[in-house]
Amino acid sequence: MDRNAPADFTPHFAGSGRLKDQVCFISGSSSGIGRAVARLYAAEGAKVVVTYHSSREEGEDVAREVQEAGAEVLLLHLDSTSRESCFDAVAKTIAHFGRLDVLVCNAGVQKSEPDFTKVDPEWIEKIFATNVFGYMWLAQAGLEKMTEGAALIFTTSVNAYRGHKYLIDYSATKGAELGFLRALAASLADKGIRVNGVAPGPIWTPLIGETMPAEDVDAFGLDVPMKRPGQPNEVAPAYLFLACRDGSYMTGQVLHPNGGIPVGG
């Protein structure tokens, strides 16, 4: 794999209408896996809410890609650490589209630190506020409007299952997300609302180069059986399966696009 090549967000196949007219909200969709999910949902006929945190320009780029796929799009700023921002974004979605069918909680942060004793309290509060509380705020806001047949999808991680020695705090947040989705799925099953997750392995996204030492970037993904990192467009189909009727008998479950890493639990 060319380490200088950009991540690939382009859907592998033309859409077949599996999300036709469904309103799909994706947090963290201005980059990485979320961007690939937004493009795939658009190709499948969804109305897509693209959210960004730091770069409106990146959000506008993804919104344009969604429109080019023929889909209606709403671009919103979202600060996942803020309950007010999460509720406001969902309220604007409802005001614009009148409904919410699929909620993808995907926004997250990480940074590598070999010595856990050097992880400062401010960062621990930030990573939990983004990766855990943000999912909870969005779920609370969304569930006020979501009805039978709706779906929530959480991005957790292979590190929720096996941990990572340089990403201890991050692994802990991903484990919290996993417990949250399983409990929420049990709570909502009687209402016909499904809650599932995707636990990617090493995926080649802009976050990797921005948050990892150069030597780790060079070796990224080489330790899995397939001997390479995955691309965002290799992960996005898992989110499509869980969002559409193909996944109608799935709740409380996690899909594992991870290059062959054995996962139990």
From TrEMBL:
GO molecular function: oxidoreductase activity, acting on CH-OH group of donors
Coiled coil stretches, renumbered: none
Alphabetized UniProt keyword annotations: Oxidoreductase
Similarity comment: family membership: Belongs to the short-chain dehydrogenases/reductases (SDR) family.
Protein name (Swiss-Prot/TrEMBL): SDR family oxidoreductase
Highest taxon in the source lineage: Bacteria
